[in-house]
Amino acid sequence: MASKDLNHVGMPPGPGFARSAGKVNPAVQIAADAAFDKQGRPTPAIHNMLLKAVEVQRPLVLANLRRLRKRYPHATAYELSQRLERDFLNGVGSGGAAIGATAIIPGVGTVVALSISAAATLVFLEATALYAQSIAELHGVRLQDPQSAQLTVMAIILGEEGQAMLTGLTGHALGTGKTPMQAWGKTVSKSLPLTTVKSLVGPMQKMFLKKMAAKGSVSIVGKALPFGIGAAVGGIGNYMMGKAVIASANRAFGPAPMEIPALLLEELEATSKQPKLPKALKPPKASRRSK
Fold it and tell me: What is the pLDDT of residues 230-241, one digit of tens each?
């Protein structure tokens, strides 16, 4: 959520915000202090949760793709990628609005609303990781190594900054994503040795956590604003962030192919030991009924 989205309600950006209409809100300050230190860095608990949220186990990614293929058995890989985009946007957009609406429910205090919003931030990151890794699989990129998956997802969330960091750290001329041959996601996942990937994770984590400290806290408070403003900020904000994630994924992998990769298709058609997709990461019912 960009800080300018909150300017009209007098809410300054960053973890130090705690004023509304010129008055200090102690509940907001308590919540902010619990999540971020005085330098604006996430506390150890938040640090671990944020990094864990961008890791999605590959069996869940396969379960997500199986869910789509069951509904659309004759869909091409490209068509499935379009469904993934639609489900992702519908899921994060409606989820942000629902969390924001809790701020106007009687009996839900500011600290409680902020706690719910913090959880919603983690769900947003998990949904982003599921979407990004599902898209990667449709392009034949098998993110079986957790560190490779985390590196790719964080770079996609960071957008052009993430791509620039990868270019600088690896010395590779990563592409712009305008065509499949220029898609950096494939270069990182297929061309870089695992030892190189491990050396990139640390710097990428630092940039990711820095951005979350600057933007995530604003998004959390935006969802807890009273008088229904929080609902609008949460829904619109998540939708805009979702659109940015999709654009970044398109730069990373390029257009999806028409045919589902052979190895992926073989795994999707396997019927044994299929994990169920957590409810928090499933698209809303309205999205599942869309054709």
Answer: 777 677 778 888
Q: What is the pTM of this model?
A: 0.73
- Beta strands 19-20 and 23-24, pairing class: antiparallel
3-state secondary structure of 21: coil
Specify the 3-state DSSP secondary structure of 144: coil
Q: Which helix (H) or strand (E) holds 161?
A: helix 160-170
Element holding 19 (H helix, E strand): strand 19-20
189-225 burial code (b ≥16 CB/10 A, e <16): beebeeeebeebbeebbebbbebbbebbbbbbbbbbb
Helix (H) or strand (E) run with residue 67 in it: helix 58-71
Decide if 239 contacts 232 (C-beta within 8 A): no
3-state secondary structure of 24: strand
Q: How confident is the model over 41-55, as pLDDT tens digits? A: 667 777 788 888 888
